[in-house]
Amino acid sequence: MMTTALVILAFGLAVLFAIIVRGWCEDVARALMDAPDAATGTSATVAHIVPARDAEDTIVPLLQDLYEQGRPGHPPSVIVVDDGSSDGTADKVRAMIPRWSGLRLLPCDGQGKKAAITTGVNATDAGWIVLTDADARCGPDRTRLLLACAERTRADMVLLPVATDGQGVLGAIQSNEQAALMMCAMATTLQGRPLLANGANMAFRREAFLELGGYNGDRFASGDDVFLVQRMMRAGKRIAALPHPDAVVRTQAEPTFSGAVQQRLRWAGKMRGVSWSAKLLPAFFLLYPWGLLALTVGINWPALVGHQLLMHALLLAGAWALWLAPVPALVHHGKRILGLPYSTWSAGLAWLAFTIYAPLIAVASLVVRPVWKGRRV
Length: 377
Hints:
Structural class: alpha/beta
Number of strands: 12
Distance between the termini: 49 Å
Number of domains: 1
Oligomer: single chain
Order of helices and strands: HEHEHEHEEHEEHEHHEEHHHHHEE
Shape: elongated
Radius of gyration: 22 Å
Largest sheet: 7 strands, mixed
Strand order of the largest sheet: 3-2-1-4-8-6-9
């Protein structure tokens, strides 16, 4: 009797999971159709802040992208905050300043990305702050679409999509993972309960940031994105999402296995500062397939006969199918927005890989402090 109850519960949870993921796909698709093409007469001012550390190989292409986001004759305001670089990052930026009146280079007032962001915010009086990682690329219409979204939604913060471009098996896993995470971030924000964010591509009203006290009292080195979203939510600020192909920022996948693990340890480490209520859904995603596997293997199948055997087998087969199928579909929707090729086999294998390594990363992040560009996070 207990086994039957557990099988029915497992099937019910799988149905719930499939409904949630399908709802995410539908909400993002609806938001994409409703997204405005241009701001109508907005007078909002924008400052782009780029926290940079040892980014000499990527900073110039990004700055060229950001320059294209200005209006003809009005180059955009961009503040590069040098967070203790030991390479030629600062020299690359200085070389561009004479030809770009709106470009500034500032030393970081403190250490770390949060300090760099705060330094940039304090150095401008622009109405909107747009954050972009120093190793990213973006298209010319991102700022225009951002202002249109902010104007339509009256938002205090806008979360924007991030794509990961990668080669080979490791790159494909990271690309598929990022597409799914992007869809999760966009959908939960559209539903009014933002679960994730990506600091490589997000924007907020400067006034709202200052009202919250910025990152004051934040004891975590990472989490410049998720923790700021949480503070905005607690303060009753409006958070919007813009799942639009022309608002995408592109980053490169980690080329090595160790680099990918270190990156995910940094990401998972943020969850130590997330409320328990916000951890419930991620915990369900991570633990459900392992519970389903334990249930499937643990059943005494030879003791089941007749319709009882058939019922248990069908319910568990349905649970596995309902768990496996929705996420590749989610990745498919995400990759269409991100402009990336899609493969059902690749997405399915990436989902299986994520199921194996994500719980291990989550546990390891409780004790391991990864190193990023010479600093222990």
